[in-house]
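May I ask for whichever protein you like with its backbone structure tokens?
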Amino acid sequence: MADDSSATDVGARYAQALFDLATETDTLLIVEADLKSLEAMRAASPDLRVLLSSPKFSAEDKAKGLAAVAAKAALSDTTRKFLGLLAANRRTLALEGIIKAFHRLVAASRGTVSAQVVTAVPLTEAQAAGLAAALRTALGKDPQIETSVDPAILGGVKVRVGSRLYDASLKSKLDSLKFALKRA
């Protein structure tokens, strides 16, 4: 557990520094887009994940690899320099946490809140609009909704806003019922 909180603290500090720099240089939208691209590349590439997480690669090798990725993806100078700093400081493992923390900072600066929504089947446009309206009412802020599909929840919805999880999934309800029956 201590490692997770330490990684999160490191991610939050680096994200705050990047956010401040992007705000000062008026490149917030560009850096935000760069990090979304980088996040998608990281998710899609096992090789990139290994480069970021493996201690077998030196800081110099990681810097070269990230520079090549940044050049190929045409990332901004600010983002390229930031990735070089991460590699030099041996903090590439924290990149995922940094990106998440950065997105939270951007959302907060816009007066919005990020919400991760998991459903058993894809939401229709009407369902997504209804969910957004319900979240707006409950949270008092405009939600930025990221949806994903997980058939394992069987039905219903799971919504994560910050560290809070609202679990109205059928699987969770069935598990609660099973636990209650075992106790009886």
User: Anything to note?
Assistant: The beta strands are 112-119, 142-149, 156-161, 164-169.
